[in-house]
Amino acid sequence: xxxxxxxxxxxxxxAAVPPWRNVRLLRIAGQIVVxxxxxxxxxxxxxxxxxxxxxxxxxxxxxxxxxxxxxxxAEGPIPYRATDAYGRAFAVGLLxxxxxxxxxxxxxxxxxxxxxxxxxxxxxxxxxxxxxYVELMRNTPLLxxxxxxxxxxxxxxxxxxxxSLGGSVFLNxxxxxxxxPLAEPGFGLWLTLLVAAFVVALAARVTASRLxxxxxxxxxxxxxxxxxxxxIPAVGWVALGAPVRLDLPVxxxxxxxxxxxxxxxxxALLLGLVVYTAAFIxxxxxxxxxxxxxxxxxxxxxxxxxxxxxLRLVVFPQALRxxxxxxxxxxxxxxxxxxxxIAIGFPDLFSVTRTxxxxxxxxxxxIVLVMGTYLALSLVTSLFMNLYNRRVQVLER
Amino acid sequence: xxxERLAPPVTLVGPIGWLRxxxxxxxxxxxxxxxxxxxxxxxxxxxxxxxxxxARWGVVTANLRLFLIGLYPIEEAWRIGLSLASxxxxxxxxxxxxxxxxxxxxxxSLGAGQAILAGLAAVSGLGPAVTLVLLLDAAxxxxxxxxxxxxxxxxxxxxxxxxxxxxxxxxxxQGVGGAVLPVVSTNLWGGLLLTFLLAIVxxxxxxxxxxxxALGRRSDLPAVRFLSTAYIELVRGVPLVTILFMAAIMLPxxxxxxxxxxxxxxxxxxxxxxxxxxxxxxVRGGLQAIPTGQIEAAHAIGLNAVQTNLYIVLPQALRxxxxxxxxxxxxxxxxxxxxxxxxxxxxLLGIGRAVLAQPQWFGAHLEVYAFIAAVFFILCYTxxxxxxxxxxxLGVGTR
Lengths: 397, 399
Prior knowledge:
Chain A has 397 residues and is an alpha+beta fold. Chain A has helices at residues 23-55, 86-119, 124-138, 142-154, 187-213, 221-239, 264-290, 294-302, 307-337, 349-360, 363-392; strands spanning 163-165, 169-172, 175-178, 180-183, 244-247, 250-251, 256-257, 260-262. In chain A, a hairpin with a 3-residue loop joins strand 1 (163-165) and strand 2 (169-172).
């Protein structure tokens, strides 16, 4: 099937070859047979499905999305009440999945890079600790890690005995309490300054790389841009009198007031996903950096690049090429693994839709809906990562 | 430049030199060492203290039977022993026939694992019979190995025996009715037994399907290529939980009226459908590694497309994807835990949750989950080490 048999000299045109030896005809016939087999299987399955659904009084359709859900959802980024429609419940689940996935991907990337660099460290202790961490994570099921972590969270002290981290972050049975940034009057102006600084820095960077590309002096434009990026917002911050105030959580008798609280379920899920995925990302990063040959470093030093320049101009661009494709699949894994939230009671997409399936009996429609959504999420992520991948790949001839 | 030979400075050799080089080479390395060392020491003390002094391990030892075989009736447990015995014999013979460090590692860890289980069974009061059977099975691995070294077995016979092992074991465990082999309902299967069954059936059953998909994806027939690619990408784009959920809910609907299949078989079907896509991607990697010259040579001596694949491409491709498939088996073994939340089956994690639901073990979450994590770690770590050796032995991935 795989390799096409090399076409015989083009005699088929003259019908010198009998049809059962005609490669072109055989290929078409083969495809028709395969498609027919698949179609027949699909038809049989579909007929069975239709009859079983009719027998148990099920219907297929998405009309139920407009009816009242009637169940509570513990948390979500948009307001939701039990009297809202199933469609809104679905949106809450989807948003919860998105929030935990995006936050997880960001944090796992940071931790993963640290782990990957630690695995390459010349410091024996750091190296071994990182290796042990990676082995521990890779050889135990994520689901077991999650329920274990959640069990630890449930054994945290009560509000009265909260664990304080630096006086403004608190951890207890009710979750993780963080300071919430609040906008003060000058915040809008400061945000404008920040954007302006970003534009200036970007323009400087682009100009610098263009000058570098044609071999003209860059007048340290890149450095100037970075200085501007830091200096403009900093000056603005002081001039406007600190336009962001931190609303700290304050301990009352029974609970905390102010700040922002992350529920134990969300925190356990996020932490579990990050810690698990970071081990895999660490290995990806390590593999990427190790794939850059030693000679490349030596050559970079030989032409007079400084260590930071070597890292920035020689090692990273080549390592990224190797890193990005497996990194993409790790991101996809993290997003898909967020569906394990159901085991610890976080209302993510799968957990919410499963409740929907149980309540409405529309299990077939719900499964189609949830699989379609996850598939769309995966495809969008791959699309963006593939675009990025195309940027970092070295053009080869 | 004098001819006198000086001993190297104390600070470069010996323990002190090692410490200097590897832990305190610069000021920030020294700082890092102290910090990491302090955190590590603190954590270790906490964990050891909890493990030795605080944890109530009674929940594990008292329920060990559940953790191992679930509710499988103890008077029928000889069937498990028999399955394990045939597995042990085959593993021992393979270690002798195929040689190779990796196969030997796997075989000896099978023996060691059974010996450890025997030890656990002895302390937890599962009865001397279970302990004895496990010890016998462990001994069988080495006996078969020694016998295999003396009297070599034909490789083909061994491969056929491996293929037959899975269906025969499943039939043996399920029973066929009657006085000798009464049917043991699958909802009594559980624990480590079910975990292994799900993973092994999943990888074995998905293999032929995955190979076909991989060939289809690389086919130059557009319709075949499209169908295979669509299946692979569809399955890889959704979480396993949703596939297991679909298998548990929708599979009965897809079957003609009156046909019922047990939850366990539904889960196996779900895992098979899922892992086929991943097997296909592994095999595709192997197919891509076959030089085009091989295929052209096959055509030149007059083999047709089917023959080329069967005699030239697949034998080479499949050998090179063995390590990747061991890796897939490891992740599948870990992923079987999902059937507890998707279909409510009582595999290792599911049975752990069921144990925790008993009032007398209320609040022993950490002990149960830590035990389960440790079991998985030992299993997966051993296998990943063996797979690593296999990779080195086969020379895969060396550039």
